[in-house]
Amino acid sequence: MKKSGWVLLGAALALALAAGCSKPAEKAGAPKKERGPVPVRTAFAERRDLSETLWFTGELESPLAVEVKPKIQGRLEKLELKNGDPTTEGAEVRAGEVIAELDRRELEAQVALAAAQARQAEVTLDDRARERARLEALFAEEVATEQARDGAATAHESAKAALAQAQAQLKLAQVNLDETEIRAPMDGVVAERRADPGALVGPAVAIVRIAQMDPLRLILPIPVRLLPLLQEGRTQVAVATDVWPGRETECAVARIFPEADPATRTVRAEIRMDNAKRDGVWPLRPGMYATARLTLATSPGAVAVPAAAVIRVLDRQVVFTVEDGRARATDVVTGIRAGEYLEIVSGLDAGAEYVAMGQNKLTDGAPIERIAPAAEPAE
Fold first, then answer.
1. Domain at 148, CATH number
2. Contact assessment for residue 271 and residue 218, using Cβ atoms and an 8 Å cutoff
């Protein structure tokens, strides 16, 4: 090939490469095509009466329960009240009332023996006192020796000590005899009977358990962050039980325990429920299941939207509103949450149309397409 032919071929290749390289530049300079409308479902912000509440479940329990144990060892002779009724489950007792008796015979004999020993000690003391007085007089007349006088004084003092010891033994025997009558330490109901007449019992063996029935209590685990909202005697909690489903009783927070549980970050709060008898029957019983509703805050007539409609963008809270067929990212300030609804304190008015479904696919200004007619705003 001649030299001129090679030159023409090179020029043609250069033109072809230049033409190929110019196409991407032309595409880059072309206007972008807008993304199609995003299908969404919209609704209208409405006013609602909102209450932020916490729900708890637990078991009712007696605020005070005591295991009654004899202070001395002995054989259980009676397990009945003074009126003859048996001391058994369900029996009502009063503080100080005799609920059981131990066998008294051995202790009665010990009391009799101690009393006799005390009387003998009194007689001995009288004798030693007379002897001391006699020797004091003889010593004054220089008839008795000083040694005899001092011996009589020592014997007299020993007799005093012996009498005091005998009297203490008598008192102890009487106390032990009195302890054969086992008394209720408080007002309450026999919740459990654990022994029967004839059993050998003692300080390590409980014969009954007595529980307080009115009031009963419910313990709630309150998150520590909510403690500033609680006040003893003032904060009200609505409690419902299995006895009356759907019926709530307002009860005050009676006590807030001083320590928090580091594992759960909660503090126990005690709720007390009145449980006076009705027609001779306790309406509530320890161990019953209960549900408690604690209202933290209320906002009547608040502008509200479903919580899912509010999107967090960094430190902003955004609701996508609808304007001329486009989504607008609207900053809002939220308040309390009640179930699935969230209060809008500012940024959104009642009746404003917002995106209720599909908001996670939106950007500010994106065109939208309603996939269902928007609900009419609530009046």
1. 1.10.287
2. yes
Tens-place pLDDT, residues 121-139: 999 999 999 999 999 999 8
For the stretch 241-268, pLDDT in tens is: 988 777 899 999 999 999 999 999 999 9
pTM of the predicted structure, to 2 decimals: 0.65
**Mean pLDDT computed over 48-69:** 93
pLDDT at position 375: 55
Residues 56-93 as b or e (16 or more Cβ within 10 Å = b): bebebbbbebbebbbebebebebbbbeeeeebeeebbb
Q: CATH number of the domain at 46, please.
A: 2.40.420.20
- Rounded Cα distance, 295 and 293, in Å: 6
Task: Tell me 376's DSSP state.
Answer: P
The most distant pair of C-alpha atoms in the chain lies apart, rounded to whole Å, by 177
Residue among 174, 183, 163, 24 nearest 94 (CA): 183
pLDDT tier, 182 (very low <50, low <70, confident <90, very high otherwise): very high
Number of domains composing the chain: 4
Burial of 122 (0-12, 13-18, 19+ CB in 10 A): middle
